[in-house]
Design goal:
Layout (H helix, E strand, L loop, with lengths): L7 E9 L16 H14 L7 E5 L3 H8 L6 E2 L9 H8 L6 E7 L3 H11 L12 E9 L2 E10 L5
Parallel strand pairs: 1-4, 2-3, 2-4
Antiparallel strand pairs: 1-5, 5-6
Length: about 160
């Protein structure tokens, strides 16, 4: 069967910021030495696998900015995926599942975990994405139906 113009695939990557310092203000918390290492490990795994057609969106929080920067590719600061975001904000920012190509969201718990649960089960639930980990979803829309597949889960402690 051939794809029609209404059919397309999209990659959605949920990347939780790496290990960060404690403290306030929350938005100013920086990555720890461990967190910088975690971000670099996942970035090294991700960079050669990322499709050319991609957009990288990072929360305005310093720890998410530092995590995204480890990829050494251009990224955009997206307030809709900040620490107070909800699932609807992440879906709107990523334009899931309508945007073609890959979208990397560098953000926070519990929202990333709730979105992962919703993508796989159709219901938001409090799933945990570990610090620095990346969950890669592949979705396609065929004849108006969206199909979602968990393509990879990468945790820095396994790299």
């Amino acid at each position: 069967m051939t794809e029609t113009k209404s059919d397309h695939t999209v990659e959605l990557l949920l990347w939780r910021h790496a290990d960060a310092e404690d403290g306030m203000p929350d938005a100013g918390r920086a990555l720890t030495k461990k967190g910088l290492k975690q971000a670099k490990q996942v970035a090294a795994w991700l960079e050669p696998r990322l499709p050319g057609a991609r957009i990288i969106l990072a929360s305005p929080a310093k720890r998410a900015q530092q995590t995204a920067a480890a990829l050494e590719l251009p990224y955009t600061t997206e307030p809709r995926i900040g620490v107070q975001a909800d699932i609807a904000d992440l879906i709107a920012a990523s334009n899931w599942p309508k945007r073609a190509g890959a979208v990397v969201l560098v953000g926070h718990q519990p929202t990333l975990g709730r979105l992962a649960a919703w993508l796989l089960s159709g219901e938001p639930a409090d799933w945990t994405i570990r610090k620095g980990a990346l969950w890669w979803f592949s979705g396609r829309t065929r004849h108006g139906d969206t199909q979602t597949v968990l393509k990879a889960v990468v945790s820095p402690d396994l790299l």
